[in-house]
Here is the input.
Amino acid sequence: VSHLPEGVAADAPLLLVEDVQTALEALGRAARARTRAQVLAVTGSVGKTSTKEMLARMLSDQGRTHASVASYNNHWGVPLTLARMPADTEYAVIEIGMNHPGEIAPLARMARPHVALITTVGQAHLEAFANIEGIAAEKASIVEGLEPGGTAVLNGDVEVFPILRAAAEAAGARVVSFGESAGCHHRALRIEALEDTTVAEARAWRTPLLYKVAAPGRHFAVNALGALAACWALGADRALCVHSLGRWAPYSGRGAHEDILLDPTETELRLHLIDDAYNANPASMAASLEVLAAAPVRHDTGRVRVGRRIAVLGDMKELGPKSPALHAGLAALPAMGKVDTVHCIGPLMRHLFDALPDAKRGVWAESAAALAGDMRHKLDSGDVVMVKGSLSMNLARVVDAIRKMGHGQPDPAVVGPEDE
Here is the structure.
C-alpha cells in the first residue's frame, strides 16, 4: 500500500511503498529472477485464456506448474502472477493481454518467456487500433521479451502471419507455426467436431499426430495444436501432453456445455446450453456460431416438435467506428444458415437484429436483465441455446436464468475459474 488505509490497525502487516504499481512490478521481476522455471507466455485476440488453461493442464502433469488465474493478463495481473510464483516452480504459464498499443512488450520483458505463443489475431480492440495490422504488430511484440534462443509459436492461418513471423525473426527467435494451412510446421489435416468432443489428425513436422479435446469446436482443436507445439518447444514429453490435453474441458462462460433437465422425472425433457458468455469479438463470435450450427438438436420431446438452434447474442465492445457493420455482418456468416432463432441484446446488436431475415429474428432487448426473465418462454426441450457477448453486457444473467429452468443436472456443469 502507498498509505495506511482508514480502519486498519496500526500494527497490521502492511508493506508501505511509494507507488503500488512500481512495487508490484519489482516483486514480479524478483520472483522471475529467482526461479529456474521454463516460462511460456501466451497472447492472442481469441482463445488465450482457454489455451492458457490447456497449457497448464498439460504441464502440471510433468512438473510443478504455476499459471495465471482467471484473466490476470494486464499491467496488474502479470506482475501479480509472477510475484506469486514459488521459487521451485518448474513450468510457468503467463497470459498477456492488451487493450491499447504498447502494453504487451513491457509485460513480456517482465515475464521473460522461453516460449511465446500467439493463438490468433482478429478484429478485437479496434477502438484503439487503426487496422488488424496494428493489432498484429502489438501481439507480435510479445517476442521482445523472449529469452535468448527462445521460440515463437505462431498461428500460420492468419492473414497477418508475415507480420508475426518478421517480428519473431527480428528478435532472433526460432519460429514454429501451427494451423490448417499448408506449410505450417504443426498442421491439422482433419478436424471432426462430435457432440461433446473434437478429434483431430495432424502432422507435427513429419510425425503423425492424433489428439482429442473434450469440447466440440474447430477453434478448440486449432488452439490445442498451438498449445501442444508450445509445450513441446519447452521440451515436455509429447505423449503425456496429448494424454493430458484430453482431460481439459472449457469452463463456464468459455464454451462449457451442459444439459438442463426441465422435468425431475422425465430425463428426456431437457435442453442443451452452450455457455460462452464471458466475452466476444467478431472472430470468437464466428467460432461459437460454428459450434452452435454443428450441435445436434432433438425432436419430438417438447411443445415445439422440432428442436431448434437458438443464439442469444450481446454487444461486442471496443470495435470502434466499424462496430455497426461488424455486428450486422454476423448475419452473413455461413453458420447463421443453421441457426433457427437469434435473440439480440444491446444497442450494437440492434444492427444484427435488423440485418437478420424475419424468420430468424427472435426478440431484441436493451439489456440482459430485460431478456433473462423471459427465457423460459423462449426455450423448449430439444433446443440447443448458445449465449455469448462482451463481459460488460452481463450475459451471465441470461445463463443463470436458463440454468434456473433446470431440476438438477444429469451431467454436472463444468465450473472453473473465470478466464479471458
The chain has a mean pLDDT of 93. The radius of gyration is 22 Å. The chain has 13 helices and 15 strands. The chain has two domains: 20-245, 256-403.
